[in-house]
């Protein structure tokens, strides 16, 4: 699925800002003679990208808004550093260097010289300090962050209330905002920020309509030599189908969404210029069961339902064969070097076993009736909903496969598909049965396990949460997470992560389905220099802010 970006918290979404920045600053408008294009026309052309999960745009570029417009975290605002999951490397961005204290209780960043905001004002340490103040006030999070102190104009120190090894990538990937702009609105959370001021390469809102908008060059960008394209044009679509048709027709340059049967529907129309790359470094896609409701609070039920799911069908039918089935570690392809091989090799509850699923449900006290359908302990039918946004054709297919699979064990599952805003509102407040959900995908698996099992992320039903929708907490996991956070040695962190995976496999906090691909397809008729599997300096996705990070800038084809 192409995951709606507004479904993420701002602190997670911040990570994606630099991704698009690197891609967009390097994508050169070069002539492609074999395509018969005009070099002058290409030089003035806008890089055109569809947004398949937003039928209309509203001129709101506030990164704290419930619905964040595309490119806010990709080309307008930038972060201190960039992590590239395709290579596992980190690139300094607005900061040139950073140093963690020996006791793990602070990090000092040195800002890059010469960086200006798009209005010409210099980027200073006060901007960084104010960004964190505003972030904590509006969105919360960063509970370990005690103070942020600007030291002169180019250094900022973040002090923690305890040693916190995951902090570097959490604080380093937050979008930095200009204090002189954001301190002015009476209510910055609700301000539309219609004419944004950022440090990114394309900040200038040119034309804006409900179905499209254009961002032109930041006149004060700190890497002007990398602003090779004239600007970015975003197109709004109310679903994958419209965006895919635009890609097939050659109306867009970059197609970062799920495209079924892509070789036939996209590549075959112009094999010389069309390519795609779906690396398995995306987030784990989970089937989250609301554990505040019976019978989902029963680990045997969760494991039984998981064993009833045919993940081969899920990935082949629902995901067109692009995804890899999950295992009992819960970790995506981004964490292959972190996986506990013993847990992975001895995995049972993420493998299809209808008989074992039936036996476990029988044992747990959910009997089948004469009609073959199961009942709950109160005698009511064992039935519930899977909620998925209507625009996500891939995840709807996944949900339908699960529904058919569970019928084999006497459980009735109905697929509920309103718009994504309604679905996520239910996730956030706990007003749902189950849903298909992405997960954290940071450089280390700490945040993934914290969001899946940490009690600190559990909110009561009715209170909003942005992480642990299924509302599962495990005190054993808490102890391991605290141990992990206090440890800076990666080899020791991996030992702790092995134990976290053992606890995850025992507790089955949710049902992992598959390792999400990083969607990305392109047409290089007008623009060249795209990342590929052979040259993975970036992923092609512009949709997953926690994963779509880049290492180096795109270069023009020579």
Q: Can you describe this structure?
A:
This protein is α+β, with helices and mostly antiparallel strands and 558 residues long. Helix content is 28%, strand content 17%. It is built from 18 helices and 20 strands. It has helices at residues 10-13, 17-26, 39-43, 72-76, 125-138, 167-172, 179-182, 240-248, 262-265, 299-308, 311-318, 341-345, 354-364, 393-407, 420-429, 446-453, 475-486, 490-507, and strands at residues 46-51, 53-54, 81-84, 89-92, 95-100, 106-111, 145-151, 155-160, 202-208, 212-217, 231-238, 254-255, 274-276, 284-289, 324-325, 383-387, 412-416, 434-437, 511-515, 521-523. The strands form five sheets. It has a six-stranded mixed beta sheet. Strands 1, 2, 9, 10 and 11 form a five-stranded mixed beta sheet that branches. A four-stranded antiparallel beta sheet has the order 5-6-8-7, with helices on one face. A hairpin with a 3-residue loop joins strand 7 (145-151) and strand 8 (155-160). Helix 10 (299-308) packs antiparallel against helix 13 (354-364), helix 11 (311-318) packs antiparallel against helix 14 (393-407) and helix 16 runs antiparallel to helix 17. The longest helix has 18 residues, at 490-507. The protein starts with 9 loop residues before the first helix and ends in a 35-residue tail after the last strand. Residues 1-20, 29-36 and 544-558 have low confidence and may be disordered.
């Amino acid at each position: 699925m192409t995951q709606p970006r507004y479904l993420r918290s701002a602190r997670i979404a911040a990570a994606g800002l630099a991704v698009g920045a690197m891609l967009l600053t390097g994508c050169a408008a070069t002539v492609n003679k074999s395509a018969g294009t005009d070099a002058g026309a290409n030089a003035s052309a806008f890089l055109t990208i569809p947004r398949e999960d937003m039928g209309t745009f509203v001129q709101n570029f506030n990164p704290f808004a419930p619905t964040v417009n595309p490119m806010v975290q990709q080309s307008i605002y930038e972060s201190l550093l960039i992590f590239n999951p395709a290579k596992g490397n980190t690139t300094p961005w607005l900061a040139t260097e950073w140093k963690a204290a020996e006791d793990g209780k602070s990090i000092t960043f040195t800002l890059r010289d010469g960086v200006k905001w798009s209005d010409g004002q210099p980027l200073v340490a006060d901007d960084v300090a104010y960004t964190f103040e505003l972030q904590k006030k509006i969105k919360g999070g960063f509970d370990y962050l005690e103070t942020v102190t600007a030291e002169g104009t180019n250094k900022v120190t973040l002090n923690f209330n305890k040693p916190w090894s995951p902090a570097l990538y959490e604080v380093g990937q937050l979008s930095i905002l200009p204090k002189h702009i954001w301190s002015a609105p009476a209510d910055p959370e609700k301000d539309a920020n219609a004419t944004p001021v950022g440090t990114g390469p394309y900040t200038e809102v040119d034309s804006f309509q409900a179905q499209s908008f254009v961002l032109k060059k930041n006149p004060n960008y700190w890497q002007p030599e990398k602003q090779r394209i004239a600007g970015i044009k975003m197109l709004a679509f109310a679903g994958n189908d419209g965006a895919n048709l635009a890609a097939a027709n050659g109306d867009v340059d970059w197609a970062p969404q799920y495209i079924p049967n892509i070789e036939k529907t996209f590549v075959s129309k112009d094999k010389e210029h069309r390519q795609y790359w779906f690396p398995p470094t995306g987030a784990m896609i989970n089937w989250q069961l609301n554990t505040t409701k019976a019978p989902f609070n029963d680990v045997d039920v969760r494991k039984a339902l998981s064993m009833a799911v045919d993940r081969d069908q899920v990935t082949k039918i629902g995901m067109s064969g692009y995804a890899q089935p999950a295992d009992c570690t819960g970790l995506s392809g981004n964490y292959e070097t972190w996986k506990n091989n013993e847990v992975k090799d001895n995995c049972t509850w993420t493998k299809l076993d209808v008989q074992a699923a039936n036996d476990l449900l029988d044992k747990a006290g959910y009997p089948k009736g004469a009609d073959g359908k199961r009942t709950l302990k109160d005698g009511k039918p064992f039935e519930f909903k899977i909620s998925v946004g209507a625009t996500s054709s891939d995840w709807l297919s996944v949900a339908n496969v699960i529904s058919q699979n569970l019928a084999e064990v006497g459980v009735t599952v109905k697929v509920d598909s309103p718009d994504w805003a309604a679905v996520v509102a239910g996730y956030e407040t706990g007003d749902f049965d189950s849903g298909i959900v992405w997960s954290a995908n940071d450089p280390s698996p700490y945040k993934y396990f914290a969001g899946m099992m940490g009690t600190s992320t559990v909110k009561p039903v009715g209170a909003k949460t942005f992480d642990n929708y299924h509302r599962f907490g495990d005190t054993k996991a808490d102890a391991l997470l605290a141990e992990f956070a206090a440890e800076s040695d990666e080899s020791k962190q991996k030992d702790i992560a092995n134990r976290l995976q053992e606890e995850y496999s025992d507790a089955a906090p949710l049902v992992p389905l598959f390792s999400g691909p990083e969607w990305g397809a392109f047409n290089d008729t007008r623009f060249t220099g795209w990342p590929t599997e052979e040259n993975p300096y970036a992923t092609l996705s512009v949709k997953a802010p926690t994963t779509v990070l880049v290492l180096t800038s795109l270069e023009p084809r020579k």
